[in-house]
């Protein structure tokens, strides 16, 4: 099994959603502070530099720490977030780093079909809703969450509360690290990142070099083909690791959801693909506005990531041998 960095257990508290960050016990009282809504509300004093340093210190310490991660998840849509939840709650010892290109995480799961609010989820994926405590109406073969945003915001808050998960949003993966491994095989060994605003401006500015994160397993869940979507699937083609994109096929709910879940796998050494990106990679049908496939694929991706981690020896984030 991969050696993992130990996280500080004193910072965790056991909750019904697994281990979560303890609220800070540091608390200073200020006499002139008042929560008074009759015109006398007074905040504790602050210096502008304190605000800057509070953010900079934490953000850059996190970047420094996560330059080597155990798992990087690319894309915080429904598949990527479900994967992160399952991985982080199953293995609180793993450093899981999510890279999301957009400012707002959540991908396409803030609404159901045709911009309507209800979200349909086919059984048995309703079990995941029970696990994260999202209420729904049971319609027999499927369930309906009253607003897709209730699912996405709940899942997002559960994931971000996990002490072993870091999310860097407004940050794009603009390439994959691809090494020749110990057996002479091409292996995805991490991701190349940049601020999304920088990534979008490579044509207008020159020489804006990226950053890297090294890890033994990348889970790519970047969604449909688009300006950013299907990123890793397309990169596998241009890197010569995949002959061509399968391209997403026409809508067939009954064929597509099990196909995405059951085929979620390590598509190249070190790279697991989940969610709708897999439909572009494999040439599978789309399913339209039913989201159980994204949940099942995220959980399967977490299982696959654990399988890979259990099959290799890792030193400083690099796979050095198989077990
Ligand atoms: C043309 C089209 C057709 C659709 N058809 C279907 C359908 O048939 N079935 C269906 O369920 N849904 C469909 N949707 C809606 C939606 O894409 C999915 O419902 C669902 O949100 C997919 O989940 P996902 O987690 O795979 O990807 P998404 O929800 O799309 O999440 C992907 C995330 O990855 C991020 N990302 C992408 N590239 C990068 C990168 N390089 N670096 C970092 N982050 C990145 C994105 O910002 C996004 O947040 C469709 C959407 C479009 C645009």
Question: In short, what is this structure?
Answer:
31% of the residues lie in helices and 25% in strands. It is found in: Cytoplasm; Nucleus.
Describe this structure as you would to a colleague:
- There is one protein chain.
- The protein is an alpha/beta fold.
- 31% of the residues lie in helices and 25% in strands.
- The protein is built from nine helices and 18 strands.
- It has helices at 48-66, 78-90, 126-131, 148-161, 196-199, 231-238, 253-263, 276-282, 292-310, and strands at residues 12-15, 18-21, 71-74, 96-100, 119-122, 137-138, 142-145, 165-169, 171-180, 186-195, 211-214, 217-220, 249-251, 265-268, 271-273, 285-286, 312-315, 318-322.
- A six-stranded mixed sheet has the order 8-4-3-12-15-14, sandwiched between helices.
- α2 (78-90) crosses α9 and α7 packs parallel to α9 (292-310).
- It is globular, with a radius of gyration of 21 Å.
- It starts with 11 loop residues before the first strand and ends with a strand.
- The relative contact order is 0.16.
- The site of flavin-adenine dinucleotide has 32 residues, from α2, β4, β9 and α8.
